[in-house]
Amino acid sequence: MNRNPISTIWQRAALAVSVALTPVLMTASSLVVQQADAEASSHREAPLISMDAFADNTDTYVFVSPTNPDNVVLVASWIPFEGPEGGPNYFQWDPNVHYTINVDNNGDAVPDFTYVLEANEQIQNPLTFLYNTGPIGPDGTNWNRQQHYSLFEVTSAGSKTLLDNVLAPPVNIGSKSTPNYDEFDSNFIYTASDSGDDIKIYAGQTDDAFWVDLQVFDLLTLRGQPAPIGYTDGNNSPVDSVSGFNNHSLVI
Fold first, then answer.
1. Total structural domains in the chain?
2. Taking a C-beta distance cutoff of 8 angstroms, is the pair 218, 235 a contact?
């Protein structure tokens, strides 16, 4: 089934700035020999989006698959600093945001195609506020506040539906609610067909893969360096400020 992504005034666009991959040719050899530059807002330092965390694109990654050199992997992440203990209202995709990845294949700064994720929430039991009422199954059993999403591919020729209202993965609550989470999470890697090619897709909460010491915003301090670039006291060892935090990622 093909349908166009919903376009409404109130739906905010969360753009992964992979349109700035200049140039990214979608072949493994081109990516190996040609430098690909990516730009993204990254972790609350973009002032205009800092008050709208659910639309804040933290990082965008493009790389050759480590298991298949013929494949390119696109990863865009949003919603910075998701604490894992955020219950009962755990973090999720915002139904009022279009999460998009623009891809430019020829370096003209115009998207050749765009991936658009749209999410929705489906309450199973409106009489409880709980996220889940028992161990969550791969089919959503006992998951009260289920989230589903659709993924579209948009080109100048029109829009194609890659995934239609599939179940998103729940967050990792704990061993009672989501036992064996790593194995459980793999149930939500979907395969879609695009012009005869298979595309693997995952869209859900992930560990923040970035490494940054945000004390750099204390007058450009770089811990680990001697003063005055670093600190003079004992607090001069670099720290990964996003360690232990999650975000939501679309992986294609």
1. 1
2. no
